[in-house]
Amino acid sequence: MAGLGSASPRFKLVFRVPPSALAACKSAIFAAGAGRYPGPGNYTECCWTTMGTGQFRPGDAANPHIGKVGELEEVPEARVETLCVGESVVRKAVEALKKAHPYEEPGYEVFRLEDI
Prior knowledge:
Blueprint: E1 10-17, H1 22-31, E2 48-56, E3 73-85, H2 87-100, E4 108-113
Antiparallel strand pairs: 1-3, 1-4, 2-3
């Protein structure tokens, strides 16, 4: 990611979501500022999306959106990766993701990126 020309720290937000909620989650994180690349191209709403299979077993106190308590569940999910420039942007994007995501506990990770 060298050459992005930004002094702000950069982060990669990665999350998984059922296909039925993919558009809503992407809209929410993009509205919060995720997916914007600094520079003359002014690219916005940038992400990488792949399909896969998520697996989970809801615990006794869970209120699962999909599946039943105690039963192993496998579901199709999209994995989305996007750039967030600035800590405030990644925090807003995670907050927006949690509000838009249908799962009780959305699976996501935030990675700090290095400029090499």
